[in-house]
Amino acid sequence: MVRTMAIIAGALALCGGSPGQPSDDVLVGINYFAGWWAPLPNKWHDAEGRDWRERFPERVPLLGEYNTQETMDREIVAAAEHGVDFFAILWYYNRPGTEAEPNARFLERGVTNFLESPENHRMRFMLEFCNHPPFEVVADEDWAYCVKLWTEWIQHPQYLRIDGRPVFKVHGFHHFHVQNDRDPALSRKRLELLRQSVRDAGAGEILIGCGVSDHEAIPEGHPATALFDFTAVYMGVPALEQRQDDYPYGILIEHARTSWNVHRDDALPHMPYVPAGWSPRPWPDPRPYFAFPTREEWRAALEGVNDALASSPALGLPGRKAFTIYAWNEFGEGGIVAPTRGDGMMKLEQIEAVFGVSETDSESPPPPG
Known about the structure:
Layout: H1 2-13, E1 27-32, H2 69-80, E2 86-91, H3 109-116, E3 124-129, H4 140-154, E4 161-162, E5 165-170, H5 173-179, H6 184-200, E6 207-211, E7 230-232, H7 249-263, E8 270-271, E9 273-275, H8 295-311, E10 322-326, E11 329-330, E12 335-336, H9 346-355, H10 359-363
Parallel strand pairs: 1-2, 1-10, 2-3, 3-5, 5-6, 6-7, 7-8, 9-10
Antiparallel strand pairs: 4-5, 11-12
């Protein structure tokens, strides 16, 4: 803990700013990607084997460059003390004894490190089942395996619940539809297996959401309305051509604002997203690059989603205003809230300024010992 606070204090020194009047009735979630491991191949190295941290040192995280237990412990402390209520942890299926991609077994660390952290009393977590290829779940026995594992984790006391109902998200509705043979009955059967498993475990009635496209309206009669309790967007990128220079962050946040407006009239509650950035320069990616937000732009983006949540009953989770930020640690793609050499604690400071301290952190007692 001493080392954690020293790192945080050093990062704070990089950024000034004083908190304003916080809003404490909104749950702040951040997507968490556990894709940072040391063994090669890893995501810190490009296709030619070069370590791209040397070319993009401003993206190097201050709390740990790999998803170790120590990194997670420091991240929980920093996030909770600056207004983050939960991590939406991305989880990927690897059939037991196999890996869908080289070293993909390490992706499990997002969940396991959180569960094993002595600091996890400070905030909540939820599962986001990333079902895009090559991590899809197609066979019945694989789905049953996942349901058993998810149910175990959902029973954890720090799992995110709204009015006693645990919150779970399927990353992509359209992938889920295809993976279930485009058969709504099969999709419903599999989701009901999860619902019943959670009930049988005494964990209540689960809220299951799905990811949809940022500008895809969900009216009455949309297939998702018969299966899910809410929708959400992980991240949306404007359809612009890649160019040498960065596009302004203003275009990126305006794209998100349009998404909020599209979904405010949906038939299902919609949990909006805020982009912390998008600039996949370290990786081969054909999509456009955007400048990272300044302190003022980031503050305005957070205040904007806060206003949108307040003005639309359809935005948020069922029963609670909530949104997610893309992302805690998408260092390669550029969705970064975690403290870095470039931004220090700036993004966390502004989250605290707008939304206050973590609800769980302010109420939970310190761990024993």
